[in-house]
């Protein structure tokens, strides 16, 4: 199970970072890593199967050897063995065989259940999230503006640690001696450098940090939100908390459902919130407006839209305390000013305590009541901006790039900007059924197709493997039937010679036999067989038992070995297809759905299918053996066998039809459980902050109940089938007994043989149909795996570019037409531009203008419908995707890091030496450029060791042990190491403090002087001194030229400059 956990973890990480893997062409490396873990898992699975085969061997050998030894000892002592004695004993041992048949399954399941229970117990015994918050002695009066609503007293704070990621004391980041308070119903700003602990301080107010010492006083939140009693006059609950995380958490539902977050719809308040968060225009541009499905993690939205949506959720909530983590980094400055005026200090903020962590202090300085600055692991609090400026010895404008004219100017929102929209009213709420971005999981109908069985068998080695497997069971069954028949001869010669075996054919009450059968049986009459010693009969019987055991045990070993081979092949094929699936596919398929196939379905493919198949084939061959033996007695025995089997098969078909549909539904329900758990784990901090634990527990319970109900109904189908087939088998056995009793003359050996094979028939019939039904159900997993193994991938063919390509970085785009799907209207509509080598180009445009689409087209995530993109003389449509993407680079707004070390995240293929890696870290100021020794000051504290000093420092999954800004800088350092000729940046330093950002921009100019830079910018100040600006509008280039040329032209770019509120600053930068 541990290996399965590790496999699931690495696959989950790959799916989470799928976009980064695709952009960086890391599919091959991740495929090798996952397959290496898969090999470890299959090795452990084989060990388990070998242990199981030992149990099976005991089950097979015990009844056979016990019967042989018991009969031999009895014959040796008493010198004879009568049919009554022999076949009675065989019947007893047969019942023992049936009982022990279930023993390997029972033992295996008990061991697995015990391991699972221990794991659950270990998890439940793990430390709970302790309540680090204290309640004030008495409730605060909201009317008192000077009352502290949250208070820290000598607090020492750190992020919680766990067993998976253990930090040493020196690695832990700690905020020390925190003595600050936050006034009620006021705006408080938390500022500080990148990585100074702003997010840690906010999370500590939610109880999501580790309180090493000291005290944090937060008003106790109400135990009941009374959401169903919400009304306009009693909306705000003073001590309730809302939280906007630095990484926006958005559910896969509609925009309206994300904003409401379980609250009733107050249309007036909803419209007010949408307008205050500058979402009105965005919703008009979106196809289904408020009812659009945003996709997993809000993939359908831009970074700024996701941030504003989570802000809207907090503003619409009933919270009296609102904690906001860096909401201005992903929006334009004028949008930030609009949000400040409308949301943070407007009507929606009335009666609320707002605590905001931000780098944009000057944006809020005229409204802030209190300021907390974090530096060197210490928090200092200032009651005014003037007090902070006296402490810094500089104006706050020096801390960020927000132009003061923006704050003081009136009428910032000019006509035609994204924020100038018609009045929002209920008529804009879509009435038609919205399009679903994430489609429901496809559920097949009818029986499992023969092609599924054929493809599964092919993955195991093909029809040759199947034929060998059937041959092994044919030989085993032949020896087993011969063993029982040999016992009949043995007993007849010992105790029943006085009876003529031929007499049985004179009594049609039992069998009506043809002359041909008479002749066959007569030649085998004991009267014509010379009598041998007991050792002779016992020796042959023992040899037959050994042969049966050997072939049956080898049959299991052979089947398990080929199944492991087939499972590995299927996994490799499916992994290959998933890693090379189009980017659009992973955006529209929920994480839980893919994980379910890589985990639960493959657990079934690894073991359950072959186990059921092996048992089932053995039972079917037993049934055939009985039918063949019956043919030597009478054709009516064969007819009776066929009749009973056919009717039982009919009953089984009814149960299987229902159970198969239920099993397919169970697979889908299980995917929903996985997806719900993932959603909760990602947004656990937000869920707990909003006090929505019970709501999400109820959702999980519903998902689990739906999944459990399918298991319950499958069990009902199974029991329905067991009862009826058991009845049919019992009826057949009763008919055999009645036929024997009705005979006036019979051979005891024959009667014993008939009863033995009748009892064997009852068991074989039941287990054959039972395993046939279960095989059909379990092949559903193979069906789902094969479905993903055959899905289309991106184009894998193409030309290899020259080894040094691209050498210059020249980019030519001509008449480019690109759409997101063949049936959708194009987004880029004849886009044409040329970029020379070593040119820095800023790309700007309104939402929907095509900036992100151009990026996807450059990496060929979207293929050109018309036109071409040429890089250094090579049309990228003719190149191999891996080669193209490997030679380009992008730094996204949402950085992606993988679990491992600092070294593996900087240089995954270990191509560069330590000097190059440390140099890149200095260039992005993650370590002090002035210090080249072993130690360097931390950016946060002399007491907090800088983890970037060691390339072996641990990086947790997603880089969650780093701040958002540090993750962005680490991604930039990764690009500096590679030094690509074409680099695309999408607000790559949006979460970095302004002083560091200024240094980073200088490093970008120096390190990428030989590269072509394409920068998608939200803040015009980051590109105002670039070589060229490209303004996009409606999928075309509206303007392109130097910043000075476009400003002098007084066109669209000049309009954006005026809207920014930074006119003087931007004009100066363009002319310097």
UniProtKB/TrEMBL annotation:
Listed transmembrane segments: 53-73, 460-479, 536-557, 623-653, 721-743, 749-770
SMART domains (UniProt xref): AAA
UniProt xrefs under CDD domains: ABC_6TM_VMR1_D2_like, ABCC_MRP_domain1, ABCC_MRP_domain2
UniProt-listed PROSITE patterns: ABC_TM1F, ABC_TRANSPORTER_1, ABC_TRANSPORTER_2
Subcellular location: Membrane
GO molecular function, one term: ATP binding
Listed InterPro entries: AAA+_ATPase, ABC1_TM_dom, ABC1_TM_sf, ABC_transporter-like_ATP-bd, ABC_transporter-like_CS, ABC_transporter_C-like, P-loop_NTPase
Main subcellular location: membrane
Domain ABC transporter: 150-401, 811-1059
Entry membrane topology: Multi-pass membrane protein
Domain of life (superkingdom): Eukaryota
Domain ABC transmembrane type-1: 1-112, 509-777
Keywords from the UniProt entry: ATP-binding, Glycoprotein, Membrane, Nucleotide-binding, Repeat, Transmembrane, Transmembrane helix, Transport
Gene Ontology cellular component list: cytoplasm; membrane
A Pfam family the protein falls into: ABC_tran
Recorded family membership: Belongs to the ABC transporter superfamily. ABCC family. Conjugate transporter (TC 3.A.1.208) subfamily.
Name of this chain's protein: ABC bile acid transporter
């Amino acid at each position: 199970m541990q290996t399965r956990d590790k496999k699931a973890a690495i696959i989950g990480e790959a799916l989470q970072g799928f976009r980064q893997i695709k952009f960086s062409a890391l599919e091959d490396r991740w495929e090798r890593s996952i397959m290496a873990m898969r090999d470890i898992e299959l090795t452990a699975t084989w060990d388990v199967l070998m242990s199981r085969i030992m149990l099976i061997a005991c089950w097979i050998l015990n009844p056979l050897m016990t019967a042989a030894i018991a009969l031999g000892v009895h014959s040796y002592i008493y010198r004879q063995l009568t049919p009554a004695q022999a076949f009675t004993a065989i019947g007893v041992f047969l019942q023992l065989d049936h009982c022990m048949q279930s023993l390997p399954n029972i033992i295996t399941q008990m061991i697995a259940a015990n391991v699972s229970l221990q794991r659950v117990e270990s998890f439940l015994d793990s430390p709970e999230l302790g309540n680090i918050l204290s309640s004030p002695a008495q409730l605060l009066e909201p009317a008192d503006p000077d009352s502290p609503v949250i208070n820290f007293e000598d607090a020492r704070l750190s992020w919680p640690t766990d067993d998976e990621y253990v930090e040493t004391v020196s690695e832990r980041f700690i905020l020390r001696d925190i003595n600050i308070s936050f006034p009620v119903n006021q705006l408080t700003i938390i500022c500080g450098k990148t990585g100074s602990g702003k997010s840690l301080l906010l999370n500590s107010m939610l109880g999501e940090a580790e309180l090493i010492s000291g005290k944090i006083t937060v008003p106790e939140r109400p135990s009941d939100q009374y959401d169903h009693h919400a009304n306009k006059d009693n909306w705000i609950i003073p001590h309730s908390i809302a939280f906007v995380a630095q990484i926006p958490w958005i559910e896969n539902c509609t925009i309206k459902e994300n904003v409401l977050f379980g609250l009733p719809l107050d249309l007036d308040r909803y419209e007010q919130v949408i307008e205050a968060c500058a979402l009105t225009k965005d919703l008009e541009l979106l196809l289904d407006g408020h009812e659009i499905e945003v996709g997993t993690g809000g993939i359908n939205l831009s970074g700024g839209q996701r941030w504003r949506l989570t802000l809207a959720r907090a503003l619409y909530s009933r919270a009296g305390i609102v904690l906001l983590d860096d909401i201005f980094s992903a929006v334009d400055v004028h949008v930030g000013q609009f949000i400040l005026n409308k949301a943070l200090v407007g009507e929606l903020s009335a009666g609320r305590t707002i605590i905001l962590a931000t780098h944009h202090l000057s944006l809020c300085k005229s409204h802030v009541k209190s300021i907390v600055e974090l530096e060197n692991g210490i928090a200092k609090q200032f009651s005014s901006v003037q007090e902070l400026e006296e402490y810094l010895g500089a104006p706050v404008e020096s801390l960020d790039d927000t132009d003061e004219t923006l704050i003081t100017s009136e009428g910032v929102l000019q006509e035609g900007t994204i924020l100038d929209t018609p009045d929002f009213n209920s008529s804009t709420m879509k009435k038609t059924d919205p399009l679903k971005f994430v489609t429901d999981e496809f559920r097949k109908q009818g029986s499992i197709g023969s092609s599924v069985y054929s493809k599964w068998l092919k993955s195991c080695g093909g029809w040759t493997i199947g034929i060998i497997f059937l041959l092994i069971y044919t030989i085993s069954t032949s020896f087993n039937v011969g063993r029982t028949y040999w016992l009949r001869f043995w007993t007849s010669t010992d105790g029943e010679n006085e009876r003529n075996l031929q007499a049985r054919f004179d009594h049609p009450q039992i069998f009506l036999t043809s002359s041909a059968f008479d002749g066959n049986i007569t030649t085998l009459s004991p009267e014509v067989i010379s009598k041998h010693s007991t050792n002779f009969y016992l020796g042959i019987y023992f040899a037959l038992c050994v042969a049966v055991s050997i072939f049956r045990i080898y049959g299991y070993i052979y089947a398990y070995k080929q199944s492991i081979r087939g499972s590995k092949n299927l996994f490799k094929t499916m992994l290959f297809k998933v890693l090379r699936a189009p980017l659009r596919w992973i955006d529209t398929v929920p994480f839980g759905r893919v994980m379910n196939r890589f985990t639960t379905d493959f657990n079934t493919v690894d073991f359950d299918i072959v186990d059921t198949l092996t048992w089932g084939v053995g039972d079917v061959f037993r049934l055939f053996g009985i039918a063949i033996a019956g043919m030597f007695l009478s054709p009516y025995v064969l007819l009776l066998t066929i009749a009973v089997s056919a009717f039982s098969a009919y009953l089984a078909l009814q149960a299987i039809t229902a159970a198969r549909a239920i099993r397919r539904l169970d697979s889908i329900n299980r995917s929903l459980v996985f997806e719900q758990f993932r959603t909760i784990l990602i947004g656990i901090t937000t869920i707990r902050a909003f006090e929505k634990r019970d709501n999400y527990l109820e959702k999980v319970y519903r998902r689990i109940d739906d999944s459990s109900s399918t298991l319950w109904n499958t069990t009902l189908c199974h029991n329905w089938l067991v009862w009826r087939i058991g009845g049919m088998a019992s009826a057949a056995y009763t008919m055999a007994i009645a036929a024997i009793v009705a005979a006036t003359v019979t051979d005891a050996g024959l009667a014993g043989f008939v009863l033995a094979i009748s009892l064997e028939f009852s068991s074989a019939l039941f287990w054959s149909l039972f395993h046939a039904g279960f095989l059909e159900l379990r092949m559903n997993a193979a069906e789902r795996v094969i479905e993903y193994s055959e899905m289309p991938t991106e184009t894998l063919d193409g030309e290899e570019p020259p080894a040094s390509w691209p050498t210059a970085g020249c980019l030519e785009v001509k008449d480019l037409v690109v759409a997101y799907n063949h049936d959708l209207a194009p987004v880029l509509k004849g886009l044409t531009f040329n970029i020379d080598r070593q040119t820095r180009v800023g790309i700007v445009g309104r939402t929907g203008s095509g900036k992100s689409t151009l990026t996807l087209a450059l990496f060929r995530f979207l293929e050109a419908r018309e036109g071409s993109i040429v890089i250094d003389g090579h049309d990228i449509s003719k190149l191999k995707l891996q080669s193209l993407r490997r030679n380009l680079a992008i730094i996204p707004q949402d950085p992606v890091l993988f679990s491992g070390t600092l070294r593996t995240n900087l240089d995954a293929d270990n191509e560069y030496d330590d000097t190059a890696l440390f140099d890149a870290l200095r260039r992005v100021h993650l370590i002090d450029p002035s210090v080249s020794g072993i130690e360097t000051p931390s950016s946060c504290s002399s007491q907090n060791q800088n983890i970037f000093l060691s390339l072996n420092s641990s990086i947790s999954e997603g880089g969650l042990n780093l701040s958002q800004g540090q993750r962005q800088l680490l991604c930039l350092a990764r690009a500096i190491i590679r030094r690509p000729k074409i680099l695309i940046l999408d607000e790559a330093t949006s979460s970095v403090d302004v002083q560091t950002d200024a240094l980073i921009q200088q490093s970008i100019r120096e390190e990428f002087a030989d590269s072509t830079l394409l920068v998608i910018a939200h803040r015009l100040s980051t590109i105002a001194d670039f070589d060229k600006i490209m303004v996009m509008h409606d999928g075309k280039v509206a303007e392109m030229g130097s910043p000075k040329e476009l400003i002098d032209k007084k066109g669209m770019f000049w309009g954006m400059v005026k809207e920014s509120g930074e006119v003087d600053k931007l004009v100066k930068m363009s002319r310097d």
